[in-house]
Amino acid sequence: MTARSFATSAFRHAALLSIATFALLPFAVMVSTSIKPANEIFSDTVRWWPQKPAIIENYSEAFSAAPLLLYLVNGVVVTAAIFFLQVLVALPAAYALAKLRFFGRHVAFGFVLFCLLIPYQAIAVPLFILLYYVGLLDSYSALVLPFIISVFGIFLMRQFFMGVPDDLVDAARMDGMSELSIVWRVMLPAAVPALTAFGVFSVVAHWNDYFWPLVAVSSDSYFTPPLGIMAFRNAEAGNDFGPLMAAATIIVAPLLALFLLAQRRFIEGIAFTGIK
Amino acid sequence: MSLSASQSRAGLALIAPASVLALLFLIAPLSSIFVLAFTDYQLGDRSLRFVGLGNFRALAGDSTFWKSLSNTLIYSAVVVPGSMLLGLVSALLIDAGTSLRSFYRTAFFLPVMASLLAMAVVWEFMLHPSFGIVNATMKALGFAPHNWLKDGGIALYVLAIIGIWQSFGFNMVLFMAGLSAIPRDLYDAAEMDGTPNAWARFKLITWPLLAPVTIFVAVTSVIRSFQVFDTVHALTQGGPNKATEVLLYTIYAEGFEFFRSGHAAAITIVFIMLVVGVSLLRFVSLKKNGASA
């Protein structure tokens, strides 16, 4: 019996470790190459830890060859602005759809469900034309504006608000609160778990988004991290892989660090937003 | 009466900002796709001319479009089963024991979190014909090295493997959520009833009870695979010789490189029909299963 359960456990770990190798290999290659001098990168022998680490050389070369810090700051500014505005717009609408009876409520919710089906890339061409005519292309606004209306956020928060007891809302009304202050002072504190999940979803999506920034901006002062790494790669005419992998590590690190610190939150957030 | 009137006013006021923005950034663009597709508009034109079905007729005879559509479907046909199977196997294996659960879960989820663009650059290096670890491994095992991204016969499948790598952890998390909802005592009961074999228990309990999650994962995976773009743009630009041309990439090239907005809009309509079609399939299957969304 114990022999059998040992065999089962060994098989489980063997299988999982081989999947883990597949999942982690690119990260290992990235970090390992980012600390290797050029001659070791181009050598035939595979070595994970370099004989003569070139950590400082590669990373300082990465930071000096491209404004990586600026790209990171852009990423933070853009994702934070998008999430903040999404919440500002979505929460009142979600509350109204969940708790208030008004004319057109069903139409509005049906409309939300319909829009959930449309990936944003499908409307990128007209959005681009719109921003072109109002002269907003190549700006922070171009990166942020199209996403401040999140039907997904409205849908998710509405589903969550449906489960908040009516008594809580009625009590607030008895206290003489306006509907708008109920949204921010009663519903928002009650909705922290759902809001966290939506935050994870939104931040991950927009931090990593490539299609829209590629279309919307062209000056590198507005580049977000994914555009930055591409610009870096295209600018490195040669095969300067050490600094390139250092740059990739720098770009990938912030979100991964956040994920590792709060992985339970992240995974639950993604599962929550996925299942609902 | 007065309560419902004030609720009605408050409701409309609260959805007003969202409605205005939705009109501006969702409805207007979506409607204009359906207008643009019937015009010869090019970005910067002062006027546009309706060309009826002209754009669609042009598409029907455009070999790039057909290549792009079939490549998208092939990519999807590899990535969806691949990432679902790997996601399900990972979830089942993690769930089968108690040790190192969170290590594996975290490891498998890392690719989902990491910027695909940065990781595409890493994959490109790994697949480098001379210095890449993939060819080094091939050589060590006695196989011939390949120029993975430049070989038209395999480039699309290489991108599909990167797609599987990137997305299976996402599917794993959804499957694990589904598994945790299956009551333990069902397995105990099955064992007592003489179903000692793990595979038999899987067929009898896990698979049927997981069906709603599986359908959801399938639909999500299909839609996400239709949206493949980052790796194509970063690694192959649709090449070599259109071997990795996919729908979003064609839309991007037509709309934002050649500025043939009308033509891009026509391809976009095909893309929308594919995505919406798959989503509607989900609603149909949910109705049949009686599960709730």
How would you describe this protein?
- The complex is a heterodimer of chains A (276) and B (293).
- Chain A is mostly helical.
- Chain A has two domains: 62 residues, no CATH class; 170 residues, MetI-like (MetI-like fold), CATH 1.10.3720.
- Helices cover 75% and strands 0% of the residues of chain A.
- The radius of gyration of chain A is 24 Å and the shape is globular.
- The two termini of chain A are 41 Å apart.
- With 293 residues, chain B is mostly helical.
- Chain B has one domain: MetI-like fold.
- Helices cover 74% and strands 0% of the residues of chain B.
- In chain B, helix 9 runs antiparallel to helix 12 and helix 11 packs antiparallel against helix 12.
- The mean pLDDT of chain B is 87.
- Classes of the chains: A mainly alpha (276), B mainly alpha (293).
In total, the number of domains of chain B comes to 1
How many strands, what sense, and barrel or not for the largest sheet of chain A?
none
Shape of chain B: globular
Number of strands of chain B: 0
Question: In brief, what are we looking at here?
Answer:
With 276 residues, chain A is an all-alpha fold.
Notable features of this structure?
heterodimer, A: 276 residues, mainly alpha, MetI-like fold, 2 domains, 15 helices, B: 293 residues, 74% helix
What order do the helices and strands come in, and which of them pair?
The complex is a heterodimer of chains A (276) and B (293).
Chain A (H helix, E strand, L loop, with lengths): L1 H33 L3 H4 L13 H11 L2 H32 L5 H12 L7 H10 L6 H5 L6 H12 L3 H9 L4 H12 L1 H17 L2 H6 L8 H11 L5 H21 L1 H13 L1
Helix pairs in contact in A: 1-14, 3-14, 4-8, 4-11, 4-13, 5-8, 9-10, 11-15, 13-14, 14-15
Chain B lengths: L1 H35 L17 H7 L2 H33 L5 H13 L2 H11 L6 H8 L14 H26 L3 H9 L5 H29 L3 H7 L10 H11 L3 H29 L4
Helix pairs in contact in B: 3-4, 3-7, 3-9, 4-7, 5-10, 7-9, 9-12, 11-12
